[in-house]
Amino acid sequence: MRKIIIILLAASLLWIWQGSVIMAKTNISFWTTETQSERMKTIQLILDTFEALNDDIQVKLVPVDENDLPTQMAAASAAGNIPEVVEMGSELAVAFGSEGIMDFGAHEAVINDIGRGEFFKGALQLTTSPAGQAYALPYHGWVQGIWYRADWFKEAGLAPPNTWYNILKAARHFNNPAKNQYGILIGTKPEGFAEQVFTQFAISNGAQEFDANGNLVFNSDAMRETLEYYKELQKYTPPGPQTWRARDYYLQGKMAMFFYSTYIMDDLSLAEVAKGSLTGENFEGLGGVGFDANLVKNTKMVSSFKNTQDSSYGVIVTLGITKASDSSKTDAAKRLVRYLYEEDAYVTFLHMAPGGMNPVLRSMAQSDKFMNDPKGIFKHYGKDKIAEIIGGLDHLQKFEIVEGKMFPASGEIFAQKIIPQMIYKTIFEGVSSQAAMNEAEAEMIKIINK
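The chain above was modelled as a monomer; its predicted structure follows.
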């Protein structure tokens, strides 16, 4: 009897041991900067589905404010407990990659599995090192460009605003202050919007803040030419220092062109979203109008324009896989990241912010599922127009990154509003372009020498 009990006990222990092996899971963490509760619920649903399809992996979702990511990552690294997957802006991906935190090989493996040609070139460039290694994988982003009245342009026989010459010609043609109509909206108030618009013009003229060796090259002929062109263009913008709010002129039929990101797509297509721009409360010259249901049809967007080279401006959010001593965790992280590019998961993620989150994969930009967003925004544009807008991701460039190298000083220059202040001085204070650039350069040198 005792023998039988021992045999049964041994068998039960073996069953428990085998069961524990079967049930063993690889645990990984996924840090996201999408901290809003509704978005967290959506991401958790995506992760739950992934776990159901991969029962050997368990993912812990951790929200982290993007401003806190550097300090949180430093603390986690010091404690030996860094997350396996991180969703973050491209600038942070470059910074973490430069610090040796990111797994370049894991990123390359996923990129190659998807197909390098599937990614928009500009999105990849913002996350690639000078040696050609991937700091992270681009995941989604928004594009800035010129939204314009295509019907007005057609009637006037004007070419699309895709070159400096065409932009200025159209701005002059459509500007009619006597009828409270203006040619274009660019940023002239000393804040971030002005720098975003100016940056796209500067890069389209071959002007940069830094060269690939980190030397400050801001005070150049190309930059001065850009500033003088910008000063000329503002003559056809509504009076006074202006920011994005002056989009109201466009939505009320009083402007031919305006700079904005793809976040404007719902304002152009949905009456309930546009209503804040249809009142007479924001500008004396605007009395308010009803929603123009044909405006979205009559609007086109130029996401890339040029003077000496093509230039697009936008923001890329990435997925990064960190280095891990445990190969099973690296494998699990790669499988998760690869899954996040699968159509159902990808579209669900992107639809958290239609227009604000655009795919970095060419095929996804024309996917029927992507086009069927829950607010019904994209159907107002159609596949061809959506693909054209998102295509701006092919030419993305920013001052912060030159030939795969990130220069943190550029971020501080942006934070200090040095360029918008330079623009304001030349337009509203009568300071010459060269003098304003000299002052801006002096402020930049102070930041570099800190």
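The longest strand covers residues 137-149.
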